[in-house]
Amino acid sequence: MVDGRRPGERAGLNRERVLDVALDLVDHSGTGALTMRRLGAELGVEAMTLYHHVPGKQALLDGLVERVLTQALPLDTTEEDWRPLLRAYAHGLRSALLRHPGVLPLVAARPAVTPAALDTVERCLRVLTGAGIELGRALHTVNSLALLAISHATAEAAGLGEEGPGSAEWLAGADPGRYPLLTEAARTGAGVDDAERFELAVEALLAGVSRPAAPRR
Known about the structure:
Blueprint (H helix, E strand, L loop, with lengths): L6 H4 L4 H15 L6 H8 L3 H4 L6 H16 L9 H18 L4 H6 L5 H16 L4 H24 L9 H5 L7 H9 L5 H17 L7
Helix pairs in contact: 2-5, 5-6, 5-8, 6-9, 6-12, 8-9, 9-12
């Protein structure tokens, strides 16, 4: 009997499996280690087999961006109120990026171009415009939230402010006479929680969207 499955299917592969293993490889070794040959070895197949699921390296990288975006806002999300939806998107994107810090440079540099990634953006735009928000303002909002999540996650993954100059420990040793508020914050831990800071920024951005757009000069 003739087996009509493609080689990749016979190997028990599908596109989702290929992308998940690629994401795991980048998590552990960085994007520089991601090659079709290395990925094929991780999956136990020849590199050529992967081309049945991703046309090439660029499509593979686009797929990794897609994987993070769809983790941020699963396609089965049913929320129709724009504020909770965008909160979920922003916080979900930050969480997904912190789970996969190796992909951060990639997500920062590559636009969403795959159908599933564009579905995520389209979903947000549909809910925003359905609430009466002008399309351009809606797209600015979605992109601003994405940039906020990416930059915040990048700083968190790099450990900026955890130790050394500028950290709470470092500021605690500053001159309290000259910097009474900074040293108090350093001693008490006020304003140093990453999640709180991100939530404040998201809420400020959403509050701005709620206000009428300023007239152009």
